[in-house]
Design goal:
Length: 429
């Protein structure tokens, strides 16, 4: 590739048709399509490729969706367990093999510090290793830059340790004593289970995350939903697109072959559940009286998915085993709204309440008032700026192995079309 011979040094300037920022599955999917079409480009990565998969996942991490949903461009899952759930090291092997399947013009260890549009309409991409000038910029840096920790966490007794999901690797990272896991998205419930399996003392602050069946009527629920076309529904087809974008993922697990997570059953087995955390001061932790509501709402989501599958089975006349009606295994009594961490033996907090992207380096008018990208299927109103790899960029699978390739195909097709309509961009090959 032409770019292979270009090594920008500080204060140098390299002109190129396309710059991709980020070398995760989204950025390298875009590179795969551009390479196939012979479009000159560069992929800039501040760490190494797939850094998050290698360095920001816990040791027992596994996929929540079945392996068959791994469909990176030209590289679908080819293993012998399509209905299984790859472990962390297997995921790394998969994405590394995808990257090795083509010759991406990748530059690792380069941090983008500023992107701005000049008077000629080109984009100046400043880095700590020189300046690139491009007609098109694909932002594939993901949405996991800044772990969310609420401001009141700073008011908690400093003797109580704080850890975020990005820094957790194994139960050995948690101090002796009880750990309060905050958040019930996929990470929160899985790390709660990880600690319990290790025999650690753990409590869980339950947020408003929904939950999903795992196996239902003879098949994994995700198999049914895929067959029903659920994963093909676009963000524009959702009743409230903004609310859909903001939703937390349904929780379940792929661990040990996959299973549901019903927090009521964990409570019956001795897990202390609280409502949402509302504040911290000294050794005092306060909770909203919303535990029962959050459990009920999660179950409503669970039941709703079952009803969708039931309706589909009935409509298509499919032979499938019946399932007993869902029953709530446990209900909370009076809700606890305040605890003293010292009295409860709480020595650590594990924050599992998500991340925020950091686009402070992006000096282009393509973000809304909350800092979220403004786009339609990754294509911004500002000509030449694109996003990839975000949840619900186009469909449910956009931020996952299932749909990121289709989005990359769409975005790169737009770029190739524009390059062919008078752009001065170069091609190679």
């Amino acid at each position: 590739m032409l770019v292979d011979n270009v090594s920008p040094m500080p204060n140098s300037r390299v002109n190129i048709p396309v710059v991709i920022i980020g070398a995760g599955q989204a950025g390298l999917s875009a590179s795969w399509y551009l390479c196939r079409q012979g479009v000159e480009h560069v992929v800039l990565e501040r760490h190494t490729r797939f850094h998050a998969w290698k360095n920001q996942r816990w040791d027992s991490f596994c996929l929540v969706t079945p392996n068959w949903q791994c469909r990176l461009p030209g590289f679908p899952y080819q293993g012998d367990d399509p209905e299984g759930f790859m472990l962390k090291d297997e995921i790394v092997d998969y994405v590394e093999a995808f990257a090795d399947s083509f010759d991406a013009p990748l530059r690792e260890g380069i941090t983008v510090t500023r992107v701005a549009q000049n008077a000629d309409g080109r984009f100046e991409v400043d880095t700590d290793d020189g300046l690139w000038s491009a007609e098109h910029v694909i932002v594939a840096s993901g949405g996991y830059d800044r772990p969310i920790t609420p401001p009141y966490a700073a008011d908690l007794d400093p003797s109580i340790a704080h850890l975020h999901t990005r820094d957790y690797r194994s139960p050995a990272d948690i101090p002796e004593g009880k750990c309060l896991v905050v958040g019930t998205g996929q990470s929160g419930v899985q790390l709660m289970e990880d600690l319990r399996i290790a025999g650690r003392d753990v409590a869980l602050a339950v947020g408003p995350a929904p939950r999903s069946p795992r196996m239902y009527r003879g098949r994994d629920a995700t198999d049914w939903l895929h067959e029903m076309g659920y994963y093909e529904r676009t963000i524009d087809q959702q009743p409230d697109p903004k609310a859909t974008e903001a939703k937390t993922n349904h929780y379940m697990s792929g661990r040990d072959g996959g299973h549901e997570i019903d927090l009521r059953k964990f409570a019956l087995d001795g897990l202390q559940l609280y409502g949402s955390v509302t504040g911290m001061k000294g050794s005092t932790i306060t909770f909203a009286p919303d535990l029962e509501k959050n459990l009920d709402d999660a179950d409503d989501s669970y039941i709703g998915i079952r009803k969708m599958i039931d309706a589909y089975i009935d409509e298509k006349g499919i032979e499938a085993p019946a399932e007993p009606p869902f029953e709530k295994a446990w209900r909370p009594g009076s809700e606890i709204t305040e605890v003293d961490a010292d009295e409860e033996g709480i020595t650590s907090i594990l924050w599992c309440i998500g991340f925020r992207p950091d686009y402070g380096w992006l000096h282009v008018d393509c973000l809304d008032g909350t800092g979220r990208p403004i786009h339609h299927r990754g294509v911004c109103d500002v000509d030449g700026v694109y996003f990839l790899g975000l949840g619900w960029l186009h469909t449910w699978g956009s931020g996952r192995f299932l749909g990121v390739g289709e989005d990359a195909d769409h975005v790169t097709s737009c770029i190739i079309r524009r390059l062919g309509q008078g752009s001065k961009g170069r091609r190679f090959g």
